[in-house]
Amino acid sequence: MAHSDIDVTAPPARRIGAVVLITHGDTVGLVKPTYKDGWQLPGGGAHQNETPGAAGHRELLEEIGLDRELTHFLALDWIEPNKETGAAEGYNIVLDGGNLTASEASGVTIPEAARAELEAFEWVPVAHLDKYAKPYQADRIREALDARASGLRMPLLVHGRRVVA
Length: 165
Hints:
By secondary structure, the protein is α+β, with helices and mostly antiparallel strands. Helix content is 22%, strand content 32%. The protein has four helices and nine strands, in the order E-E-E-H-E-E-H-E-H-H-E-E-E. The strands form two sheets. Strands 1, 2, 3, 4, 5, 6 and 7 form a seven-stranded mixed β-sheet that branches. Strands 8-9 form a two-stranded antiparallel ribbon.
């Protein structure tokens, strides 16, 4: 394919999701949406002109009341178009929200404003991910955990410069 086969004034539509891996010991923080089956990492879609770190920060605060600086990501997961919903192809960026202290972990709760979207939050043992999450979600989480354990955290950049949420 030639470089010129993509019109830079009308690029393909893509969605960008910012999901956040937070852990407490050997557990992973997951939310249960009211609008679909299964559990998943907290997060959601980035708005126009919103960096992935800012989107993840906003979503964590909205969904579980957690205020974390997000400076690195652990995995980039391509998602095919959804024929049922009409959603465009896109990417989910798994951001590293860190390992929470006991005090931080005990304070995580779904704010009242998010209760229409989320019915529950739970600290799920890594060994039980398959009982909670869809296979692709569980695989994504394990890959992110492996990347973190291997020291493979990648900085979030804007025009080549490190940024924070």
